[in-house]
Amino acid sequence: MGQMDFIDLEVVLSNFHQAANDALKEFSCLVEASCKMIDYSENATYLVEDMQGEKYILRISRPNYHKKEEIEAEIAWLNSLHEQSPIDVSLPMRADDGDYVHAHEYNDTIYYSTLFTFLEGNAPDENNEENLIQQFETLGEITAMFHKHTIEQHDYYKAFQRMTWDYDTILGQSPKWARWQDGLGMTPSRIALYEEATLVIQKRLDAYGKSQTRFGLIHADLRLANLLIYGDEIKVIDFDDCGFGWFLYDVATSVSFIEHMPYLDDLIASWIKGYSKIRTLTDEEIEMIPTFILMRRLQLISWIGSRDNDTTRLLGENYTLQSDALVKAYLEKYQN
């Protein structure tokens, strides 16, 4: 996708709502359940509550993003994590026919639905610096558990049909979301500056490589909105973007939208401390973290420029303008 496509939101939401209502019919126990949209960004997410007060999360996937077998791979990973790791994740629910994923077609467009268990908790507060820094140590541990599990199950997961997050699909010639060059606030001079940074990023990634201990199945979107704090626990939700990528890309996604905050270095130090309790990080790996953070930042510029939702409208062009200082600092440190 290039520049933002403006579509009839009322029609889009109507289709999502219809798919949600049809999805509940796949579960006989939810025929009389209430269903309320709680989020619309990439997908539409609904809170479902049955007659006994039991809560669930219903996801209606955005059309033309994942095939059914790709969603089924996501579900297989969730079930594997639940069975073989201590990570608390929202679990998929089987419908009456035994399937997890159902297709709903309206006007030649397919919407896939999946029902998940409900997890209690609230997203971390980016404005509570002290708590956030502490929480990032726990997040580092959890992320390392993800990666340890991925490495141990490498032969099983390598056959999964999921997207790949690498330079080409993030910043290169085949971006999964959109071109960063088409982001808001882009000018010829800014594009030239950012292109210098992308060349350095590409060079460093090529040298870093994709060995089995560095590249595998990852969550790929551990931003604050996809974490739930419940007491001392951190629960992880929204595996919609999971795929094959560099393990350290996960730490970059965890600071999505807050890469320019003054406490960033403290967050990363806390994350490394927690991660290192489970998996050892070499100096070379730690030195690569700024590269993954800037790559993610540029990817988010492309996302903001190609989507129309509450988050993108709030961030807008200012997110690009705030990136200038980060790009210049990166080039000063890493450009030969």
From TrEMBL:
It comes from the Bacteria. Residues 42-279 form the Aminoglycoside phosphotransferase domain. Pfam families: APH. Belongs to the pseudomonas-type ThrB family. This is Phosphotransferase. It comes from Lysinibacillus irui.
